[in-house]
Structure formats: structure tokens, C-alpha cells
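Q: Give me a backbone?
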Amino acid sequence: TADPLVRLMLGERWLDAIPLLEVLCIAGVINVCTANTWPVFIALGRPWITTALMALGVILLVPLLLWSVPVAGAMGAAWALVAVAGVVLAGNLLATLRLLRLSGVQLLAQTWRTLVAVVTMSGATVVVEALWPQPEGLFDTALLLVCSVVTGAAAYLASLWVLWRLVGSADGPERTGVLLLRTSLGKAMALFTPRS
């Protein structure tokens, strides 16, 4: 999705930055995986864990940048960010599992459906972009971007729903999402239903 997004938002001059942006997106995705645990550390009275993990990231990033930038330039810096994000994620997971007294198996049992849905979504967008003819002009580029996003979202939601149904519609975020959707649809339908 980086190619049509860059073409549409930044223009043709930025096309050489696409590989760099793709690597930075990997670091961003890894960083997002840690975002939900910071409030957990605070709620459990351990806000210092967040500070320690951030400090670890800085301590690792500085020497990695000093080594990787002269060797590989901006791409080296981007991969250094990915490596540091991975280490911080690992530390974050270890701290979270220990504080919540969870095993890795228990965590995976609750998250595997989401992980599979993310992989399915990524695969769907890659397929759309691979099969799409080279866009010519802004309209074609915008259409490719919209189709990639819609296809990815549909693949994510469909795979998540199918996997949830396969495990017997277990309690969890999927059930909450379905209940919220039903409630919202019911309220929306009530707006358009004539009153007698």
C-alpha cells in the first residue's frame, strides 16, 4: 500500500522513499504492539517499567545508528529502529506476562485469531497490488489505494469472524464487537422505521 499512498499523498518525487517508508512501517507496527501495555504498568503501580524500556531503546539505538548509518545510510537507520523496537517489544512482553502472571501460551491463546487475521489482511493487500495494473494518474492511484484498504479490511474482518465462529464464538473482543454492531444497527434502523 506504500506505493499508491506515496504517489497520491507525496507525489512522484518521493517514490525512491518507498522502501524506507516500508521499513519504518514495520517499526511502527512493532511499536503499536507495545502501546496497550503502558497503561497496564501504570495501573499496577509500575510506571518505571515504561521508563526502563524506553531507556533500553535509547541505549540500544544510539550505537546501532552509529554503526548502521555509515554502512547503509537512511535504510540502516530504519532497520536499526526495527531492531530496537523488536527488543523493546520482547522486554515489554516479558514484563507484561510476569506482572499479569500469564504464560506465553495463555497470551497466544487469546491473540492467535487476531494474528492470523492480520496476516490474512496483509496477504490480501499484497495480492490486490500485485494483480492491479500499473496506475496511470491520480484517479487510478486513488482507486488502487481504496481497493487495497477495503480488501484488507474485509479480509481482516472476515477471517477474524470465521476463526471466532470456528472456536465456538468464545467470549472476547469479537463477541463485544458483534454486540456493539447489533446495538448500533438496531438504533440506526429505529431512526428509519416509521412510528405508528
Remarks:
- The CA atoms of residues 165 and 174 lie 10 Å apart.
- The radius of gyration is 21 Å.
- The chain has a mean pLDDT of 91.
